Amino acid sequence: MEDLAKSVVDHIDKAYPPINRHIVPIHLENGMGCVAAVIAGSPERPHFAGKPYIRDAPQTKQATSDDFRQLLAERQPKAREILKWRGRDVSWLTTYRNGSSTPGIGVLEDCNEFYLTLPDNLCVPLEHALISHDRMHDRLLLEIQSPLWQS
């Protein structure tokens, strides 16, 4: 029974991100036994049958949790394009409901499948950002439509 439990644990432990599990041995009346793997729902889904790997120049390396998060974000074309500019200067133009606009320039801090982060922890929902190009400075231009709470 211990060998079976260890085998089940070994297989579950190959998943990424790690799965929280509880293994319960079940002894049957006929002297036989089995194990139950109790696995709760996970906020870190999806899980995969092995650890993720990424290509880093000439080598392949195991992805970190940040790498994995970025891989998931890159499934969306808008996030994938914005992430190409992470850590680099970008331009943005915030347009308000009254028709006025405010330009900005700074380093794009991050982007995920929901929002992008500009300097001073300014977070913008992706649905409020249009992607364009700042031809004068040859860089990404984000046209940000101000959320309703700004004027």
Structure write-up:
With 151 residues, the chain is of the alpha+beta class. It has two domains: 38 residues, no CATH class; 83 residues, Roll (SH3 type barrels). 18% of the residues lie in helices and 39% in strands. The chain is built from three helices and eleven strands, in the order H-E-E-E-E-H-H-E-E-E-E-E-E-E. The strands form four sheets. The protein has a four-stranded mixed beta sheet with strand order 6-5-11-10, with helices on one face. It starts with a helix and ends in a 6-residue tail after the last strand. The mean pLDDT is 87.
- CATH architecture classification of the largest domain: Roll
Tell me how many strands there are.
11
| Chain-averaged pLDDT | 87
- Radius of gyration (Å): 23 Å
- End-to-end gap: 66 Å
Order of helices and strands: HEEEEHHEEEEEEE
- Uncertain stretches of 5 or more adjacent residues: none
Strand order of the largest sheet: 6-5-11-10
Number of domains: 2
What CATH calls the topology of the largest domain is SH3 type barrels
Write the layout of secondary structure elements.
Layout: H1 2-12, E1 21-27, E2 33-39, E3 53-56, E4 59-62, H2 65-73, H3 77-83, E5 89-95, E6 101-107, E7 110-111, E8 115-118, E9 122-125, E10 129-134, E11 139-145
Parallel strand pairs: 5-11
Antiparallel strand pairs: 1-2, 3-4, 5-6, 7-8, 8-9, 10-11
